[in-house]
User: Fold these one by one.
Assistant:
Number 1:
Amino acid sequence: MDALYFDLDGTLVAFERSFAEILADAAERADAELTPAEMERYGGALGAALESAEDPYATAARTAELAVDPAAFSDAMHEAEPAATAATPGAFEALDAVAGDHRLGVLTNGHGPMQRAKLDACGLSEYFEVVVASGEVGVGKPDPEIFAAAEERLPAESYTFVADELDRVVRAAVDAGWRGIYLGEEESDDVPRIELLSELPDRFEAYSE
């Protein structure tokens, strides 16, 4: 059976609020206030910690020297971020159509517990056998090691990756020996492109022939 992996953020799910609004919500949940400068420091620190720290949200709070307990702020972020996340248009339709004939997984750059919480919040978890997160592998896309880790987690005859970043992610999957399907508006001559996930079943069937 073939495996079909999906990127998470921007592909299966998307934020309904800005990152600044999510941070403000988390701060309120943690009984704190953040200045714009603190939010900027936190965003930079979080990006640097996502693939190396056991709890990047607490680590970023310490690195950014926020005036809040790091563990409490991490807990608040694990509530605020999933609450601001929704499934992208066509996600359920596409997954319903491909689930019966393929092994499904999520391959995502991010903190595993947070990414799984977003899937749960959107009602998508039940579709997937595995979630492979960069924070648990130690490297992220486009590193070929994370694609190898995904193959180990979900043995299959072939692999296809659906994602919304053409150069950095979809073409990296192709370079790793996978097929790639790009979700987005940028023109692509070398990999198939869809504009909505609802187009995936037909596009994938044609691509696989």
Number 2:
Amino acid sequence: MENINENIINEEIVGEIKTETIDFKTSKEIDKIFPALVNFHKNIESIKMTATNPFFSSKYASLPDILSNVNPILAENDLFIMQIPTNANDEEMKVHTRIIHSSGQYVKADTVSLRKAKDAQQVVAFSTYMRRAAISSLLALCFDTDDDGNSISEKGDVSSPSTESPTSSRPRHRR
């Protein structure tokens, strides 16, 4: 049985892909998964953005970069990620994301693309993008550059974004 603790709507617009993370839910019991997620956060570092988007001349963390950083630390805490892309309806794609604890407890959210893929390449591109967005949101990941929203602001100055994140100078704590 699911316990709806909170509904989250996290809109992100990049190019022509718009996604919303909706329907955040947890298992009925959360006494094992939440401490494991807290411990995950004690050990995760800021993730480097090593991939380049040639259309926007910007950097981002690729799905392999994100997974190679989070999967070992999730495993240390008896956690893993399961993601399944599906068609939401005739107009949208959906990626179901669950973070599951070895006890069976979980948190989950669905990420919906508000644009339907036209071919197999777009299906893969959209699902990869949505998987990155969902993992980043559910795990509250931090990336190595934060321009304080300037890149999407009409008045913002993007010439010198901050390269310091709240956790980038924090040492990794291992037990």
Number 3:
Amino acid sequence: MHVKTLFLFLILLFSIFPANLEPIFASEDLLIHVRHISKDIGPRQGGSKEEEMTAQYIASQFRKNGIKTEIQKFKYYSLNSEGIKTSQNVVGTIEGISDKEIIICADLDTVKDFASANYTEGANDDATGLAVLIGLAEKYKCKKPLFTIKLIACGASEDGFTFPLVTPKRTELSADSYYKINYIPYMVGARQYVLSNQQNLNKTLAVLSIEAVGIGNPYFVSRDYYTENDPFFINFLVLNAKMHGIGAEKIDFMASKLPLGQEAAISHIYLPFSIAKIPSTFITCMNNPDNSGIHDTTNCMPNYLSVDDTYENLVKENMNEELLREHLEDVLDMVDASINGISYLNSWQLF
């Protein structure tokens, strides 16, 4: 146990140095992206033209930063709506020294508010996550990471009771993992990506998905409604963040209590990767959550899953745009520190 702890400490210690030796990075204003996606494009139902506009915008920002980018379209249908829909994943590839991959992902589409049955603008959920992906593309445009980084904006994540029109056959996945991924009731884009890339899953070191990171303190999710994540991996990420001066914690997030008394089961688009046995979790931000695992998100994640998830309310919850800007930069730095930490944890695979 002492040897393992010492090894972990040394990895975390060395992971700090690259960030200190990098040139000073001045990012483009992340608020520009949050504002454009939530206000100029607006609500983004899975399979809609607004979701496609968001995909095109993300792809243009990746390409602007010299990132190899693909838009991978797929068709699906939902029991909640008529007809066959077309959605897409946007995949940006930052080539590393090794072709083994670290995946960072966020949602393209937005949820339907339970109370009003209208789709949300999704300023926090998940324009903030998409802005972080763009920030990472900018951070890495002039440097080569140890491992390849995949930035994925996943389509049709929030549409419920969904089925891809064409399901890739099982090749590398176990039968158990394959069918569990197939029958996740939503997250179509993430499911499609995993099932279409089974041959590359053994090269994937870790997956972090980013969900609603605009309000509160950062948390790595230990357990959600569908799965329990590797405790070593979660503890490593928390400790790594703390050693970079970021006050992250771990949390169980099983369900969200909604204003009308319902409870919504919670997971995120890392789930298909987790089922495929890849170390994974999702990152979110909350204000003073309890330890129950079923969170009153009206208080700890204001406007979550609601039509009130607007840019104006996101700014208001942070008091002003400057504080929101600083908060998102801190989240971006934490995700980048996580990439560095995961890279050093797996650096033995370079040899």
